Amino acid sequence: MTGAAESAVVLVDPAHGAVLPVAALPAIRSARAVYRTPGVDVPADPAPPAGELLAAAPVVLFAAALSDPAAVALFESGATVIAAVPGRVLPAAVAVMDRLRSPDGCPWDAEQTHESLRQYLVEECFELLEAIEEGDRPALREELGDVLLQVLFHARIAAEDQDDPFTIDDVAAELIAKLVSRHPHVFAGGDPAVRDAQTQQQRWEELKSTEKRRESSVDGVAMGQPALALAAKLAARTARAGLPGDLLPAHTDPGSRLFALAALIKLAGTDPEGELRAVARRFAADVRAAERAARAAGIPPGPMDHETWRRFWPAR
Predict the structure, then answer these.
(1) 46 pairs with which residues across the strands?
(2) pLDDT, mean of residues 248-256
(3) pLDDT digits (tens, 9 = 90+) for 197-230
(4) Domain of 148: which CATH number?
(5) End-of-domain residue from the set 28, 58, 88
(6) In sequence order, which residues have a C-beta less than 8 Å from that of residue 78 and are 6 or more positions away?
(7) Domain limits at 288?
(8) What pLDDT sits at residue 4?
(9) How many domains does the chain have?
(10) Cis omega before residue 58 (within 30°)?
(11) How far, in Å, CA of 7 to CA of 27, rounded?
(12) Is the pLDDT of residue 271 over 60?
């Protein structure tokens, strides 16, 4: 929520009329003045020159785009950006990323490459996964932003490539085309092959295979993902291709037995990676609970013998 002393840029879509987001109300109540940029039809005074606008802070500015000079001035001064229509703030995130990679931006950001950012992409995805598992809404919002940062960062780096550049708009356009082409039952007037969520998933894989001209049922499986998730993905893909279960790796060594168990769990409709993570998290919580109980009973921190562990182990 906007603070009492903050200016705000409220992005509106002229095609939707004067749509006022609830999040803008606190800023409007505390503002010294409310202005609008040209083409925005709201009951407010036209925005003055940037210098006067900043001097009058805190103010609220209704703008059709963040690229408007008055909006830029407020944004760069630290104003909050509020969108009347979802997605209108995304260009601001792109603008921040562009600024960080510009000559007057951040030296660290300017040095990064696709390769140097790999570790952060993996870390942020796992932190997002943890927020989902914890049901932590503030963390979920923050971690989604961190994953979005990775997308913006990689797209900006790609735009600077001398041989094969592409932009964040190219990324978004390709995503839109993919979503539309793989949902003909939504965007193309219907698809008799899609009757429910399960048949939609099957149809998605069929359309993906056709688009990418794949020669194998396991083409496109990310071989670098965690081994348990990889085994489950391979089992699911080959099952859809009709592979009989007896051709899965034989149960002759620990790795094969683990693969077979992951396949069995996945084909039963459960995610083995999620199941194992849940058990691991419960185990870690039990370890901490036993250690806390032992310390509360006067046992000093450090390794404990088997009987002490059993004495303080949580009952389930």
Answers:
(1) 36
(2) 88
(3) 777 777 767 766 666 677 788 888 888 888 999 9
(4) 1.10.287.1080
(5) 88
(6) 6, 7
(7) 273-312
(8) 41
(9) 3
(10) yes
(11) 7
(12) yes
